[in-house]
Amino acid sequence: MASYDPKTFKLLTFHDAVAKFRDGKDTPRAYLERCLDVIETREPEVQAFVVLNIDGARKAADESGKRYAEGKPLSTIDGMPIGIKDLFETMDMPTQMGSPVWKGWESGRDAAHVRGLRKAGSVVLGKLVTTELGFSFPGKTRNPIDSGRTPGGSSSGSAAAIGAGMLPAAIGSQVVGSVIRPAGYCGNVAIKPTFGALNRGGGHSSLSQSHIGVHAGSIEDAWATCWNIANIAGGDVGHPGLYGALEPAAPAKPARLIQLETAGWAQADEASKEALQGVVAELRKQGVTVIGKADDADVAAYEALSAEALELSIIICMFELRWPLLGYRERGPGMLSDFMLGRLADAEKQTLEDYRDMLARREKIRAAFAALKSKADGFITLSSPGPAPKGLESTGNPSMNAAMSITGAPAWSLPLLAVDGMPLGVQLVGFPHEDAKVTGHARWLMGTYLGA
Amino acid sequence: MASYDPKTFKLLTFHDAVAKFRDGKDTPRAYLERCLDVIETREPEVQAFVVLNIDGARKAADESGKRYAEGKPLSTIDGMPIGIKDLFETMDMPTQMGSPVWKGWESGRDAAHVRGLRKAGSVVLGKLVTTELGFSFPGKTRNPIDSGRTPGGSSSGSAAAIGAGMLPAAIGSQVVGSVIRPAGYCGNVAIKPTFGALNRGGGHSSLSQSHIGVHAGSIEDAWATCWNIANIAGGDVGHPGLYGALEPAAPAKPARLIQLETAGWAQADEASKEALQGVVAELRKQGVTVIGKADDADVAAYEALSAEALELSIIICMFELRWPLLGYRERGPGMLSDFMLGRLADAEKQTLEDYRDMLARREKIRAAFAALKSKADGFITLSSPGPAPKGLESTGNPSMNAAMSITGAPAWSLPLLAVDGMPLGVQLVGFPHEDAKVTGHARWLMGTYLGA
To answer: Is 0.90 surpassed by the pTM of this model?
Structure first.
């Protein structure tokens, strides 16, 4: 049995290595080689990567090293090894999306955020396993804490690579619960920024509520990754992109949080609920007011409306995926999993009028969420209804995440808890475009709760 | 010199051919063969197509014929030959986007709207010339009325194929003025529906104000094409899609129109301005109230704000195109035109903060436009500041179109006028999501003005 302890579990960090690059006591190449050593040891079991470009990464790390030697790094993440979820295009590696439809596909170009990372000097080391087309059908990756369990999905490889200490940062993406849940399962820090904050160009992630997110070993590295992407590659077209300064917001105690249940609470196990109550008790001890649906009619109204967030998110996105999925299905058997075919059959029955109704229901949930802005600084809940379930046939339950995906709200998963010897994430959520503010709260909570 | 006369100029129509398919007096295959005859005659001069799939089209037309023979056509556009702007993916033809970057590229799949057209039984005949990546650098196409003139762009081949009578309908797209202007230049009917009305999936047209539009020989065929796309393929993700019934709205006289000048009016030639005034005089004679900026402070406010619509649209879109264009530029010389490189260099200087400012200015224009909704049923203006300019080195001036693109408003170009022996389009504009209403007005105006 795994015996994960959030206070002692070590993740890779990058931001604290840079000073040594500058003074010559360490180099990006040496940092990369240490990552490669961990990968060599852990990858046979964890299987986080679809493909690695070790030669390319070594070359990029050496170039980064030269820049540090000259005192001219390109950014705060110059030299940082990073992995890319295999839904996004990379010019030097295939993009296969966990699907036979895309087997061997090479686009010859970098997705917008990948190009941004390279321009910032980051070292793109490999492509990370995703579930089928970023949905539910699992890939090969195993949980790095207990290889008999799922790492979560769809950002399976991204979360596992961080949890295994292979990388300091990895790109994921979330439609419903694909960043925050696997981060919680693998003991990562991760952020799903506000909808539209990071440019999704060049990835098969163009749904009306999909987001690029970042898994990392620290809040600082996750924030730096987001900030550099946004400021080089922008946000999604038509969106203002990530707000906030290069330096992550200073740790700040929130005055008032809403404890959100969402539909996931009823499905959470007792130990996980108790663990969260421990965090809430600590928050109260620190002087934070924590309210819930029993305390405020607007919170109760939001909880009631968002009860359908998971199912509504899935049906909205599957409607949006009728193209291209119907075309893939027409190519013959074996192109889509039975899971996907089932969901697609449901979506096929929907009309444009049905879709409009779904969008209207989503807008109602968003309005109820926005109405809470005067009531609190943000929200706290679990990243998942429990720790990673045993077995690899399911990537787990996203019911704790749908409410944040459907509202486009920024969310962090923080590795504060252990249940059943496994990590359990605490989800800290802000209001849209207040990514910096919730980051300050996340830093404060990490420091306060873990003494980090 | 050309001697175009809108009253006698013949465009191909499809909706009125269907009755003969049903009773066996005509067939989709025979209709297609007549299109191919025109193409054989006119294409060497007009050069509207990048590639034709004649065998595939004949097969599709024969299958359509069988459906009519069995009394089971798939839709109102079953058997309709159509061409696709070469910005959009087709599974049976390459997608090359008027750019060396994409030379020979075959995606192996249909764009969302192309799949929709095929599911409706339409006969996808070929890919139509676009300017470089849908921007300004011209392709090979010539104006079908006068081959010494531009057909306009970026939907150059789409407009020319309709104007030459090669096809009853063709897909175009508009970011600033790429459907309405070339339609006006080539004597087409064309609609740029409300932003988001037709699914852009599977095309390199993902900017925050790009639209799929339809060129056709009749309002009826253009509407039927839009309706079938929207109801099979949906609108853009997150958008409600095209509103309106399968049958185009009945011809209806608007009570009140705003004559919009936009920045283009100052650049329009006298003959073109006079020609529009003739239409306005006829409207007034028919009892339509036509007001302008001199009559209403809100109209004047909108005219003032939208003066920057063209330049603002371009810089917004070029910022959004930094990815992928910067990556293309890095591949070496010859990948992008000097025009594109110049625009890109401008966009490179912009920051994310600048982009936010541009979006805010766009929102202001949209708000001023929306404020006019209580004042009129819609708008009338020219489709371009004059007829197609001589020469092929420029695709003409989009200054009459930017105001409608930046607001996402639905717009028709109607071939009502002739100036200098060339077609001149009248642009009829509605409010967002009122595509059906402006279609009724367009049908009424066509009938009233041309006696069609």
So the answer is: yes
